[in-house]
Amino acid sequence: MKVLGEVEMFLGLQIKRDREKRLIFINQKKYITKVLNKFAPDIQNAATTPWPPKKEIPHNWKKGKALKKTGSLNYISVGTRPNITYTVQKICKANSGPISIHKKIIKHLFKYLYGTKKLAIRLGGKYNYNNLNPRIINRLEMGSFKIQQIRTDKITADGLTKPLLKTAHARFMKLLGIIMME
Questions:
Q1: C-beta of residue 94 within 8 angstroms of C-beta of residue 72
Q2: How far, in Å, CA of 80 to CA of 49, rounded?
Q3: Alpha carbon distance 182, 25 (integer Å)
């Protein structure tokens, strides 16, 4: 067996560790750059959200193919960018026949990726994960906190179910632990 040192790249995921703070940062800057160069080389300005404001996709479309673009976008979404999942999921539905609105939304998403390719998802921190469930159950029984209903705009998963405007999208990214890397 050969020791190669710390992993820095794995399946297109760039990995950076901060051992002192017990953090791992994962991004796909190189892969996103490759996808942009292949499918949207002319994009030079950024969008602030993955979904363009006030855009709707009709439920019917023509036959056609868009699998290479949406496949690449899906890999980014699954890998490190859950903040684009809603948009990718919606445009993937049009793989059998995208129309002009789909192409506009894909172009908008490429602009968003152009401006945010340095974003990374942050994992970990100085937490002790041992016996998490029994501790939570014990604190619930002690009355340390209560289970309560939360408004939809305050739920982390909100950005996975609908397009968000700039402020709500920024809040969503913060809740996901997505930060800008150097």
A1: no
A2: 16
A3: 11
Phi, psi values for residue 43, rounded to 5°: -75, 125
Distance, CA of 128 to CA of 139 (rounded, Å)? 16
Answer for the pair 169, 109: CB distance below 8 angstroms, yes or no.
no
Pairing, β 23-27 against β 13-18? antiparallel
User: Which of 112, 100, 94, 129 shows the shortest CA–CA distance to 35?
Assistant: 112
Contact 101, 60 (CB under 8 A): no
Rg of the chain (C-alpha set): 19
Sheet holding 23-27, edge to edge: 9-10, 13-18, 23-27, 119-124, 178-180
115 — phi, psi (to 5°)?
A: -85, -10
Spatial CB neighbours of 36, under 8 Å, sequence gap ≥ 6 = 43, 110, 113, 114, 117
- The candidate with the shortest Cα–Cα distance to 117, out of 33, 179, 52, is 33
pLDDT of 63-117, one tens digit each?
445 677 888 899 999 888 998 998 998 888 777 777 788 888 889 999 999 999 9
Q: Check residue 51 and report its DSSP letter.
A: S
Tell me which amino acid residue 101 is.
I
- Give pTM, 2 decimals: 0.69
* Placement of tokens 């995208």 in the chain: 98
